[in-house]
């Protein structure tokens, strides 16, 4: 029977190389596994069945001289010690050895080999260079800082690299694995006496960098730990725990957000101050957004937007415990924000809000020097609802055909008045004449007036459903058009201000503050800052995308409400440069020895407002009391 050595790359056979002995694998299971780990054969591993290992042989070329028992009698086949393990995986060159001159196994082991076996050599080269096959140059394009590329590696593929020493190529005899969140560390020792420690990511002052980056990547993109944990569990990815995540968030992430947001806000205010010195007083618009609809909201963000560039200038967070009710949070946030902006030296000329009576009172009594304008969007929306209600009455169906035209005329009247209140009111009062097909008329003072549209053709007049002055529908429409409050409010809409861009920001805010999830007071504040930085970075510098030929890109969108196709611009993708600035600040905070982990106050650079108390709730009963009550309830139900 011809014996063949099972060591990969070894060509020793009983009929080819004389003087080489062959030894079977140990019967002891633990020792046999050590042999298999050292041999690292792709065909036979530790999980190979015992029956398949009985006839396998390892030649004496892979053992050291001290692995053999003394042989004073000169037996042909030397015996191995019970503790012997294959340790030599080098083979002599074919030119260095002739048949019949290799000697015993000791001589073969003692001869200095000149090349590593193919399997060992390929593994050693892969572990030593760690360069991709497509890039022959060493370390080309590889970054050593936090922005370098990260790769998800299967645990089996990773640990397969720790079978041979990178220094001498000999098998690794022992290794210890340590896991710290998303980082893995391996401490190893080889049979050649070398040892070392390998880490999957560098440390930042003793903390794994990947742990800090994982927490930062989740928060700065508007995610939550629950989403991260669910994804990692599904993928089987090792990740930090919830307590570590929230400690990193409080100690390093939140202070970094406050620092970067404060710097960007200061730069924006400085620019507004320079424009103010040139005689351009700022125009602002404001609107509130609660964390849940109705009168059960806990938090309210009141945001101030610069009307000229649509940048967010300031935001105020109010908790319901600070106000008398949920409805009082928005006026409180507005008052705080206005006082803060004015105290910093800002000379606001125009402030545009919705028609909230509370805010009207605040503006009238506390800020009379600021011109108060109403949002046209909210006014038109309210007028449309009232007109739809009138049109649903029996006999008033004709009003539904005029709904869109009348609302559009409100937008037209405000948009073309250019601050002239009298011109706005005159255009609005054209409705009673236009709806009855009168396009030229004389008022009580003898002045001639006419509609601003072009003369209608006979066909256009026939297609239109005109109202009659003696109809109920006409009277209902006039009751809305000449409503005293509406006519009074129109005087504050001559500058054509609207908070539509703020509504768009509130929609984008859902990425960072979804209403279906609850956050702490600090979480609500910092996530709002993230949304503002994201908005300000893209709202001004974002440009329209172009085709390969340089033409602006557009798309057609069907509006379900108007039943029309609308052409919209296609913009370039959003940028997130602010995230890079935030992460750099986080790494800087971690490297600062004065900032203590799990102590958020050590990293705060700005004075913090007093945290409002939580909503009062009864004290929780002791566990023993809960058990007693549950048993009593079960006994009462059993008696019944």
TrEMBL record:
This protein's record includes keyword Thylakoid: no
UniProt domain THAP-type: residue ranges: 1-89
Residue spans crossing the bilayer: none
PROSITE patterns: ZF_THAP (PS50950)
Alphabetical UniProt keywords: DNA-binding, Metal-binding, Zinc, Zinc-finger
UniProt cross-references to InterPro entries, sorted A to Z: THAP_Znf (IPR006612), THAP_Znf_sf (IPR038441)
Keyword DNA-binding set for record: yes
An example molecular function term from Gene Ontology annotations: DNA binding
Region (Disordered): 594-640
Protein name in UniProt: THAP-type domain-containing protein
